[in-house]
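Handout, section B. The chain below has 497 residues.
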Amino acid sequence: MSQIHYFLATVAVTIAITFWAARRNSGRASFYAAEGKISAPQNGLAIAGDFLSAGTVLGIVGLFFSVGMDAAPYLITPLAGLFLMLTLIVGPLRRLGRFTLGDVITHRLQAPKMRIVIGLCTIVISLINLVAQLVGAGALIAIVFGIPFNIAVVIVATLMTVYVAFGGMLAATWVQIIKAVILIAMVGVLAALCLGRAGGYAPLFDLAEISARSRDMLQFGGLQLGMFGAISLALTQVAGMMGMPHLLIRFFTVPDERAARQSLVIGTTIIGLAMATVLLVIGPAAIAFVGAEESLRDPAGGIIGGSNMITMHLARLLGGDLLFGLMSAVAFSTILAVVAGLTIAISSATSHDLVLGFRGGRSLNERSEVALFRTAAFVTSAVGIVLAILFQKENITFLIVMGQTVAASTTFPLLILAIYWRGLTATGAIAMGLFGLVTSVLGIVASPAFWVKALGNAEALIPTDYPALVTVPATFLVGWLVSKSGSAREPQGAALV
């Protein structure tokens, strides 16, 4: 089979799943949460599918190729976030929410306008992550088929819209399950080929050190983060993981709290095994084999297709066109599944949270809400295309961390205080949500990665790409100060636990 046949087969399977799901969707409960009928093992695989995105398959390997073991925090710290999510958030979230994060917050505070804030936060976080996935998809399809990046992004965005607008959460879940199984199998195959080509694990590292040209891959410091940047990056990924809307809404798809916890344990186990393989085997192999292959370098000395395509080059070197085609299809299906989940998070926040917020808690009728959900999916697709074209040269992993920065500064502190602090007031929650959203976005815009690399300015407005060490504590402080200053006049309600 040629590469195009692998892609067409992937598209055919996902479209078939979408139409199967569309025939079973009966209303907003189906579109938002698959009517809560997904089992714990199924949801665990879907969680793994949501997490093991283009950032894992393409971005992390590219980052390891550039900076060695400095890529490790991008994989290890999210696991810590998942464990804390299991301990602190999953139970109350599933017990009190129905469709969105706004359901959880307003259950405690009884303030419909709070939905506007949480809805905006969800949209911004998910849109940043959506752009990261579209960048990966565009680069992948462009290099495989030799078509312009812009056209490739439009193709992916169109497919994404079809999945969400017609299949909803049920289709997205089964696409994620299937691609998670295939992805895990292909990562295992690629790792085995890497070890086989090198003759074992120790020889693999010896080859990598030779290819790295005396650069010590095990030495931290390649990213030149400094103490502040390293701590801030860790906080970003731990707290950001606990606030990612497209992951959190997955717990509304299972029948009860027990199933939600079980699904996260299953998902975290799968994620940990896959990420360890990527970090400890595939990353060093990329340096050993891709780094030593001069034919894969462009005239400027960089890798053809950029750092996001190193995994694909490795697959071709080790398994020829067959493995390259299979890995391309797997990476493509990975991106399709994740963008579908992100689009559902954006669409449900728009049609459910924003509508209830602006209408003072009064919902639309079910037919109108589903229509708005679909419209939001189309708009999301259009906006995602424009932003992906703007950020097409940025590393996927860093784009994902941008989204985690906003999540760590908004949805994470909102959920923690709403669940565990009875002193939180509606005014305090609104203030902290808006403050965290504005400061984290401004911090990203003013950072060297955005202000200098993306916008072309000579010097960044702030010295770090990771502002969470400032924005996260400041958001908690704003929530505490505003709640305390108004607590005598405003009812607080009870903590959720």
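Note. The domain at 3-394 is CATH 1.20.1730.10 (Sodium/glucose cotransporter). Compare this with the example in section A.
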